[in-house]
Amino acid sequence: MDNRRHGFSGQPQPLKRLGSLLGASAAMQEVFRLIERVGPTDAGVLLTGESGSGKELAARSIHECSARRNGPFVAIHCGAVPSGLPEAFKGAQGGTLLLDEVCEMPPEMQTQLLRTDASTKFVADVRVIASTNRCPLQAVQSGLLREDLLYRLAVFPIEMPSLRARGDDVELLAEHFLAELNAQAHTQKRLSAPARMTLRQHVWPGNVRELKNCIERAFILGDVTLDLAPLIAGGAARDGDRIHDHEQLSIRVGSRIHDMERSLIEATLDYFKGNKRRAADALGCSLKTLYNKLNGYSQSQECANS
């Protein structure tokens, strides 16, 4: 494999830290530069990027670079806010409030948020950062996010790079996570040569979160040298004209577009162990679209069996 095509330099730079973030790649240095610029201000920030790419860590880093660093940092998931926004704003007074997965916020709560300046229910002394793993413009077009709210939140947008776009950071982060585990357990476990190859070859759809979890599982299971391949490489499966090996999908030339789409959707669901939200995100469609597709396949199967 030509590592240069995947961003691997062969001579990794040491990890650099900014607040809660770690990285040495050019992609992360650009993120660091933007955070250093916007951190000392009170501007609203919209963080975008795939699940597991470090959006909450970036939000914490912005908070730590700001004059509010001694105030609270409060993160709420917008799809599950039982007490509503007033309590969240109250808890973040003098600090920073992260609206995590803002595209999942119910419409009535979006309206509440837009009216914060005029409402006495909210505490004004709060910096708001929002994050989403969706394309914000697509979320607006699909009706998930109000356009006026998007422009209120996206004063300063920052896109978090996927792990596969960060080159040598994959191995550097793996070594960092392993060193932390070794320090906690007073051990000296290390990555095997095949494990390092796996780090480069795997596409890491779950990004840094997946990498960290994988290293921890390998640490628990391994003795001295750790292997990663058994933890992330699924066995090959064959289904008619479809062959997939956990990460790759092969389809016979001449297959119908409908069949190709179904194969891709089903293979993606297999990959994410049936998690429809993660599969929809990876496929670039809404959860509703994915459910509609699956319902259509189910109805077609019922018709074929009748």
Write structural notes for this entry.
The protein is of the alpha/beta class and 306 residues long. It folds into three domains: 26-160, Rossmann fold, CATH 3.40.50.300; 164-231, Orthogonal Bundle (Helicase, Ruva Protein, domain 3), CATH 1.10.8; 237-305, Arc Repressor Mutant, subunit A. Helix content is 45%, strand content 14%. It has 13 helices and twelve strands. It has a five-stranded parallel beta sheet, with helices on both faces. It has a three-stranded antiparallel beta sheet with strand order 10-11-12, with helices on one face. The chain has a two-stranded antiparallel ribbon with strand order 1-2. Helix 7 (169-185) crosses helix 9 (207-221), helix 11 (257-271) crosses helix 12 (276-283) and helix 12 (276-283) packs across helix 13 (287-305). The longest helix has 19 residues, at 287-305.
